[in-house]
Structure formats: C-alpha cells, structure tokens
Automatic annotation (TrEMBL):
GO MF annotations in UniProt: D-glucose transmembrane transporter activity
Entry protein name: GTR5 protein
InterPro entries: GLUT, MFS_dom, MFS_sugar_transport-like, MFS_trans_sf
Cell compartment(s), UniProt: Membrane
PANTHER family from the UniProt entry: MAJOR FACILITATOR SUPERFAMILY (MFS) PROFILE DOMAIN-CONTAINING PROTEIN, SOLUTE CARRIER FAMILY 2
Pfam families in UniProt: Sugar_tr
Name of encoding gene: Slc2a5_2
Keywords from the UniProt entry: Membrane, Signal, Transmembrane, Transmembrane helix
Origin species: Calyptomena viridis (Lesser green broadbill)
Length: 197
C-alpha cells in the first residue's frame, strides 16, 4: 500500500513538472500528457485503502471521509488560485498547472515515516510482529489483541473466498444489481454538479 502511494506520488510530480514546463517548451501536448498522467493516478482508491487500514476501528469512517473533503477542498483552492489576480494570469498559469505536484511532494516526503498498514503486513506478508509494531506506532501503546484477532478473522474469511476475475464478476448473476448501481453512480458523478461547484 505504502509503496504504491509513493510510486503514485512520483507519477504526480512528473505530471506536474511536464505541465509546468509546457509554456517554456511551447507545447500544449505536454499539458495533455500531464493531465492524462494525473487521470491514471490511483490517488483516491489508494487513499481510502491506506487511511482506512491504518485507522483505529472507531475512526475508520471519519478517516475514509477525508478523501472527499480534501478532493472538494482541492477543487476550491484550484478555483480560487485560478483567478487572474492570483495564478490565473498569462505569466503564472504554468505554476497553477504544476501546483498539483505540491500535495504529492508533501506526501512523498512524509509518507516514509509512516508504517505499512497492519492488515497488509499480517494478511499479505504474514508478519505478525511487524503488524503489532505498526499498530503500536499508529495507535500508541495498549492492548490491541482484539484488533489483531479481527484482522486474523478477515484473513481466514478471505482464504475461504473465491477471488473472481472481472469477467467472472460481470457474468455472476448474484452481483448484477450491485454492479449496475456502481456503474450508474460512477457514470453520473460528472453530472452531479461537483465540477461546477
């Protein structure tokens, strides 16, 4: 999880650099390439997964909601920064385009000081001692055996669950209505007005 976030941040910094240099290179294609790279980044799902896994159970819902908050905050800051009086002028717009690399840079510098997520360490790596150490580092000293037991139950459940391929998931009748709902919600999110806001 953590390594994937770090790689994703490198991708965002490269994308920001490409867009920031587009005026010097006199190439609008660089903006298209940079925006494409931003689009294929995995920021939102990775944020949910990592933050949800490192949060104590009682704060997990709150932690997962931070993604939507910061997404909206970023859009608002971008709109305000894009005003002509700030970075929206003819000379400063490359800085505005490159500003998406700033949060990625902050995360790239700070994330190495955070541990890997405890469920990942225990379920995928089988490192129970590393899991306990990560839990103590994240949640402080205390009795966390109940949390470790919950992770072990989840691991046992996953081992008994068949992993479906994308094609098998689409063909499975039991998941059809859930799949329809997800597709409809995802397809219509652009029509909800968030971009206008």
């Amino acid at each position: 999880r953590k390594k994937c976030l770090l790689c994703n941040n490198l991708l965002m910094i490269v994308a920001a650099s490409i867009m920031g240099c587009s005026k010097i290179a006199q190439s609008f294609e660089m903006i298209l390439i940079g925006r494409f790279m931003c689009g294929i980044s995995l920021c939102v799902p990775l944020h949910h997964q990592y933050v949800g896994e490192i949060s104590p159970k009682k704060l997990r819902g709150f932690a997962n909601s931070t993604s939507s908050f910061f997404w909206t905050l970023g859009k608002a800051v971008g709109q305000i920064s894009g005003q002509r009086e700030l970075l929206g002028s003819q000379s400063l717009w490359p800085m505005l385009m490159a500003s998406c690399g700033l949060p990625a840079l902050v995360q790239l510098v700070t994330l190495p000081f955070f541990p890997e997520s405890p469920p990942y360490l225990l379920m995928h790596k089988g490192d129970q001692e590393g899991c306990k150490k990560a839990i103590r580092q994240l949640w402080g000293e205390g009795h966390h055996q109940a949390d470790i037991d919950d992770i072990m139950k989840e691991k046992a459940t996953m081992e008994n669950t068949k992993i479906l391929s994308v094609l098998e998931l689409v063909k499975e009748p039991a998941f059809r209505w859930q799949l329809y709902m997800i597709v409809i919600l995802t397809a219509t999110v652009q029509l909800c007005g968030i971009n206008a806001v």
